[in-house]
Amino acid sequence: MKNFLHLVEFHITEHCNLNCKGCVHFSPLAEKSFLKVSEFKKDIKMLKKITEGNVETIHILGGEPLLNPNLIKILKTARKYFKNSEIKLITNGLLVLSQKELFWKTLFNFKIELSITRYPLGLDYSKMAKLANKNKVKCTFYGDEKENNSWCFPLDLDGMQDFEFNFKNCHKGNNCTNINIYKGKLYICPVVSNIGHFNKFFNKNVEVKENDYLKLSSIKNIDEIKAYIASPIPFCSFCSVQERTFNNKWEISKKEIKEWSYEFN
User: 0.90 cut: is pTM over it?
Assistant: First the structure.
């Protein structure tokens, strides 16, 4: 659709209280860190200017976004600039039942959908649904707590993969439902925007080049975004698309490099 983006994601918490094995956001490796309200406001305000508000869905996620002490302010800011967009708060559910009244009032008053990913943790998802319903908050669930639902997206740390082949065979390639915005930059993939955690933890240098993102300040309109996401980026040479596996047994991360690179298996 011309002049329209389907989905944009904002990453507001680096670390997580669950830490899934092989997480593509590298949250198990991340140090405790939160996106500031001022940074979020700057980015979403600029996105509003670029898109004229024509974004179908906005995801607020992490890491675990419910850990961010400024979550309420961030949600209100998101709605301020995108009055007609669907806004979803993506969470692992661990903190849902302990949320205070202000949390539920904010979701209701600002029409924020609560989207909970289910994991085999024995959590009372039925109770979460009832609580959301009681507070008149739209609540959806993803994943099946009784099934394997883990992915493995291994890296080639030498960057020797065919980046064009990878782009064409990646479900995130040429896909306007995988746009990530973080600290003034637009990425087509969360692996690129979060690889810094991997590099720091394992002392590696999986390089992110200037062509691997767009600066929000340089984007004039949606057409420029769509043209950008329709072509492979240099970082695609670090992904081992053919080695990817799905429907793996879900496990807690042991923070071992082999979770993210097949070279160490």
Answer: yes
